[in-house]
Amino acid sequence: MEFNNIEKFDPSSCIAGKVMRIKRITANIFRKHLAPYHITDSQLTLMFVMSKKRSMTQKQMSEMVFLEKSSLSRNLTRLIDRKLIHKTGPHQIEITTDGLYFVENIIPIWEKAMNEIREKIGEQGEHSLSTVYTSITA
Amino acid sequence: MEFNNIEKFDPSSCIAGKVMRIKRITANIFRKHLAPYHITDSQLTLMFVMSKKRSMTQKQMSEMVFLEKSSLSRNLTRLIDRKLIHKTGPHQIEITTDGLYFVENIIPIWEKAMNEIREKIGEQGEHSLSTVYTSITA
DNA sequence: AATTTAATGTTGTATATACAACTATTACTG
DNA sequence: CAGTAATAGTTGTATATACAACATTAAATT
């Protein structure tokens, strides 16, 4: 056979392929719920972290969310423009009062998105996801 | 308390947050392995599907990989420019012979990336990922 | 304290992704 | 068969992401 590797392998076993598809599906669900509030899933993650920690460096945030520093820098730009976050020094970002209210109010919406995903993946799926997450971030 | 929702909730429970982080981590591993061959994880998924099916419509592909038609259209542009895929009609894309050889040769590299991820998530993690994938795509 | 070194953050460039609006193709219907 | 409706695919625009190169700030060394 000319293409032995192709014959033998099973594309559906690809881990990255599965992760990408899961990501697209979950992002679509979240987008649908969050769009009216003009915030994205990625931005919301940053806001959630900030709402708990209140203040930190970009380096710290970048490590917490596994986001490259340049990507983080650009995502923050949009949140800073909206005054949900501000810079209190060269190496310090802080959530604003507006930011705290925003998170406070978006949590019920976020819960709706979470529930829609839970309906799809179930208790089992949610637990399995945690297993993957724990092992890959260990 | 002023921010009751914030106090109560646990950002680390966010499904989308976990999925995004897992996605960044796996994409980084794949990127590292695939970069020398000038192909991305997303493009490789398309090539993998094409290597098995040989020919299909964009609509079919879009449903198989859960990718919006416009995103697919643009990703295909790059593969068509490289002559790994070509259009055989208005609604038909086909893998080229070059494309088949490309996939045949990249599979061993792909296996290295897969193994690096497997080292992190283990048998358990790989199985858990499949569980999530099956349920969310059901 | 001044200069060098290291760490942190930003900007240039490229791909990925989605929605909305448009174009092109195919399918239906009279 | 012609005209319309439906489906498929492309383009405009915006955010997300990463690497490389640059700029800025902090730390270390003399």
Note the main attributes of this structure:
138 residues; DNA-binding; 72% helix; homodimer; 8% strand; Arc Repressor Mutant, subunit A; 6 helices; mainly alpha
Summarize the structure.
The first copy, chain A, is built from six helices and three strands. With 138 residues, chain A is mostly helical.
Q: What is the topology?
A:
2 copies of one chain form a homodimer.
Chain A: H1 4-8, H2 15-34, H3 41-53, E1 55-56, H4 58-65, H5 69-81, E2 85-89, E3 92-95, H6 97-136
Antiparallel strand pairs in A: 1-3, 2-3
Helix pairs in contact in A: 2-6
Chain B binds a DNA duplex (30 and 30 nucleotides) through α2, α4 and α5.
Describe the structure.
The structure is a homodimer of 138-residue chains. Chain A is mainly α and 138 residues long. The first copy, chain A, is 72% helix and 8% strand. The first copy, chain A, has a three-stranded antiparallel sheet. In chain A, a hairpin with a 2-residue loop joins strand 2 and strand 3. Chain A is globular. Chain A starts with a helix and ends with a helix. The relative contact order of chain A is 0.11. At the A-B interface, helix 1, helix 2, helix 3 and helix 6 of A face helix 1, helix 2, helix 3 and helix 6 of B. The structure holds a DNA duplex (30 and 30 nucleotides).
